[in-house]
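Try it yourself: sequence plus protoporphyrin IX containing FE, in.
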Amino acid sequence: MACATFRKSAATPQASLYARLGGYAALAAVTDDILAREVKDPMIVRFFRGLEVRDVQRIRQHLLGQLCAATGGPCFYPGRDMKTVHAEMEITNDIWNAFTGHIGETLNAFKVPERERNELVVIVQSLKKDIVNKP
Ligand code: HEM
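Structure, out:
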């Protein structure tokens, strides 16, 4: 019955990671929190210097779209691929660790449960090979 499908709530174990995290509004809040932490870190913010407000808005929307799509939400990631975007940036392992450390701080702040946290870590770590490009 169609309505049985609709009744599948965010609490069911089969729900997508997107749903378990609380959907679009929750992911938007997570994205904003991550970005706020990144720009407070001198090691990270230097990469974003010189960008216009509209660039920052685009990056925010693209990060959110990427997160939404990767967690099984009803989104399309409209941005460029990770290798192309970060190609000229000389991102080292230390920079990667700083950046992803802030993501971890956000997940702590939002009290994301361990199961969801582990699934997010897998998604984020799958991007590392395309983003870290300096030994
Ligand atoms: C989990 C790791 C990361 C993810 C998921 C990620 C994702 C993204 C996304 C989606 C965009 C926008 C792409 C577009 O608009 O087409 C972007 C842009 C950008 N990222 Fe990352 N990124 C990550 C790590 C990093 C790191 C470690 C740095 C450097 C500290 C960095 C610096 C930048 C900069 C400066 C831009 C703007 C590029 C531009 O449009 O001029 N990113 N990133």
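One thing you can check immediately is this: The chain has nine helices and no strands.
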